[in-house]
Specification:
single chain; alpha/beta; seven-stranded mixed sheet; two-stranded antiparallel ribbon; Methyltransf_11
């Protein structure tokens, strides 16, 4: 896991979510839809804590974990900066595959918005899913991020020089067979695993969850530039809100899942 820590030691993940606001906006919208007042949420693999801070600002109690000590430190600083210490019940360095510091059924809901696609070995993904199931209460919702093989194929075909070794058909064929991607250029995105879309629900269900929804986090607007966003904001508050409502509605359309860079699985642990 050292390569993942090294990558995030030099990458601005908080800034990424600000530069690519659709993913954060859509995910948070659907997460809040399923959280009840007074919920204690674990943000597992929280990175610098953008979701955790937003949920704490909404009045939820939050515990935060991440593999990277640097990102945990950034998250702790954001919590202090926003004066949210009383909403946080813990901020820890932890591996999603080993949440042994928490007892069974500790949390009302759990976010896991990164760890699964960083785990390239099947047994590691299985272990993270088992730990997720263990620490959430019966009846509790989980929110899990996936990256789709289809979207990465699109990216590779459109921009092959940016996604080596997927700049050759041999590289692309191997990627489509395995779902495993390791960038040939040093310092680029850390190694990852990309799921076939039709395997996401079965994967979570085999680990005990009942599936609720699979959301396209990029919706239909992930490729919009700032000028295009400015147009809709400039139409006034009422038109802009209707625009956002349409974006959220479209995110639930299963026919656009393959076009989205990130997917949000929503499931529930049976009572």
């Amino acid at each position: 896991m050292g390569s993942i820590i090294d990558y995030y030691n030099q990458f601005d993940e908080w800034g990424r979510l600000e530069r690519e606001p659709v993913e954060f906006m859509v995910n948070l919208h659907f997460i809040k839809r399923y959280l009840k007042p007074g919920t204690h949420v674990l943000d597992n693999g929280a990175g610098p804590g953008k979701y955790a801070v937003a949920l704490a600002q909404e009045g939820y109690d939050v515990t935060l974990t991440d593999l990277s000590p640097r990102l945990v430190g950034i998250a702790a600083g954001k919590v202090k900066e926003c004066k949210l210490e009383e909403r946080f019940q813990g901020i820890h360095v932890a591996d999603a595959r080993n949440l042994g510091r928490f007892e069974d059924g500790r949390f009302d809901a759990v976010l896991m918005l990164g760890p699964l696609y960083h785990l390239q070995q099947e047994e590691d993904r299985n272990q993270a899913a088992r730990e997720l199931f263990r620490v959430v209460k019966p009846g509790g919702h989980v929110f899990v991020a996936f990256m789709s093989r289809t979207r990465h194929l699109i990216n590779s075909l459109l921009h092959p020089q940016s996604w080596k070794p997927n700049d050759t058909m041999d590289g692309i064929d191997e990627f489509m067979r395995t779902g495993v991607f390791n960038h040939s250029d040093d310092g680029r995105f850390t190694g990852a695993y990309y799921f076939p879309i039709n395997e996401i629900r079965p994967f979570m269900e085999q680990h005990g969850f009942d599936s609720v929804k699979l959301i396209a986090s990029g919706s239909v607007v992930q490729s919009m530039n700032e000028e295009q966003w400015a147009y809709w904001r400039g139409r006034g508050p009422e038109q802009y809100q209707r625009f956002l409502n349409r974006v959220m509605e479209a995110a639930e359309d299963p026919y656009i899942l393959g076009a989205s860079s990130h997917l949000l699985y929503i499931g529930v642990k049976p009572q």
